[in-house]
Amino acid sequence: MKNVIGIDIGGTITKIGIVSKDANCLKKISFRTKEYIDFSSYIDKIHSSINKIASDNIEILGVGIGAPNASKNGTIETPANLNWSGNLNLVENLKKKINLPVFLSNDANCAAIGEMMYGNAKNLKDFIVITLGTGLGSGIVSNGKLVEGYDGFAAELGHFSINNSEGRLTGLGVKGGLEAYVSATGIKRTIMYMLSKYMNDSVFRGIAFKDLHGEDITKAAENNDFIAIKAYEYTGKILGKSLANFVTFSQPEAIILTGGLTNSGDWIMKPTKKSFNENLLPFYQNKVKILLSALKEKDSTILGSAALVWKNI
Known about the structure:
By secondary structure, this protein is of the alpha/beta class. The protein has helices at residues 39-53, 90-95, 107-118, 184-197, 214-222, 226-250, 266-279, 300-312, and strands at residues 2-9, 13-20, 25-32, 59-67, 75-77, 87-89, 102-106, 127-132, 136-142, 145-146, 254-258, 289-292. It has 2 domains: 2-114 and 298-312, Nucleotidyltransferase, domain 5 (2-Layer Sandwich), CATH 3.30.420; 123-292, Nucleotidyltransferase, domain 5. It is 35% helix and 22% strand. Strands 3-2-1-4-7 form a 5-stranded mixed beta sheet. Strands 10-9-8-11-12 form a 5-stranded mixed beta sheet, with helices on one face. A hairpin with a 2-residue loop joins β9 and β10 (145-146). α4 (184-197) crosses α6 and α6 packs across α7. The longest helix is centred in the C-terminal third of the chain and has 25 residues, at 226-250.
């Protein structure tokens, strides 16, 4: 059976897998992205990881890569949540090491393609995928076609400013940018904000920011921690209002949420849907669904990147 390789370059973890056309992740490997300060050593690590999981009896047709700030030219440009800066020619450098076609796209665009091939968007022509990981990514499909823009940078909604005059900075220095509030990193920042705003007891009063993890916030909310619950309410309110605004430019049939932050389930979904419905224009009411990705969480980003190959070969 013919297979492809999917690579998801995340701000925290890089995931690599061999994927069949029927969406089975046959083998996979991962490593911490942030451990590689030098871009060339990072390329070497990708190459060695591919060699580790690929074998002579597995036919590989190509490599699909999802990465933040990916362009149509095969480069990653000034990525906000990665160690490297400038224009990084990922495709050219990797093709020097492997004799395979290599396709690159924005990580959220890959997620959208993956949902079209394997997930909740199989029968949809108009939808938006929002990835809630280290940052916030977005992929927009309109009339069955991915909206990429002139050179691939359309729909950078994570850097959409929800507050132009004040607020948190994104990794690209956008004041009040959405991903600074709504992402795995954003909710950690919100925990610190809530600790300063309220005097209530909380498990987080003894935890440093660097030691705080998303699953800790969910567990605390389940244990009725006031600060954790307030953080989810605050995050969901911002996300829901932003999604309602996004509906106005493409009128999707569905918005599909994926990424680590969605693992909190109803803690993020209930306030998000409430805020979404409160801010949606009247003629959009009851027409737009908010869904969670149907792809297996551990493999969804790999599947989305792999789908890029099937789309292009």
